[in-house]
Amino acid sequence: MNAETAAVAAFPELRRLIDLREVGWVFLPTVVDGRVVEVHGVRTWPHGWADAIRVRFITDAAALRCDYTGGITWERDGGLVEVVDELLMLPEPGQRLAPHLVMGRAPTLWAP
Q1: pTM of the predicted model, to two decimals?
Q2: Which residue has the higher pLDDT, 29 or 102?
């Protein structure tokens, strides 16, 4: 049994990351003391758009989409399955229903 098969056998929810990989995502693990503690994934789109995901555990995942300026146009957090499902339903950048407006952020307070 290879490592991927063993991981999916132990945590079936990881199959969702394989689903993302099959549509062009690239993943990088964060390893501490020989253990994977976090996984980051990215999918780039034409014209500078990118989707990203961070997974700490099957109940702790977050994803976002950024435009070519780095502005966040979409984001979700929650369980791995729910976040990946939302990513897979997200229309490609440039499509009619794809999010394209940058989400507002509160200004950083200046402290003397």
Answers
A1: 0.83
A2: 29
Measured distance CA(38)–CA(29) in Å, rounded: 6
Cα 109 from Cα 82, distance rounded (Å)? 34
The DSSP 8-state label assigned to residue 27 in this structure reads: E
* Nearest-angstrom CA–CA distance, 57 and 60: 5
Contact 80, 72 (CB under 8 A): no
- Helix, strand, coil percentages (3-state) for the chain, rounded to 5, are 30, 35, 35
Q: What are the DSSP calls for 35-85, one per residue? A: EEEEEEEEEE-GGG-EEEEEEEETTEEEEEEE-TTS-EEEEEEE-HHHHHH
Contact assessment for residue 53 and residue 37, using Cβ atoms and an 8 Å cutoff: no
Residue 62 and residue 80 in contact, taking contact as beta carbons nearer than 8 Å:
no
pLDDT of residue 38: 94
Q: In terms of Cα–Cα distance, which of 73, 35, 93, 80 is closest to 54?
A: 80
Q: What is the DSSP letter of 19?
A: H
Average pLDDT (36-57) is 95
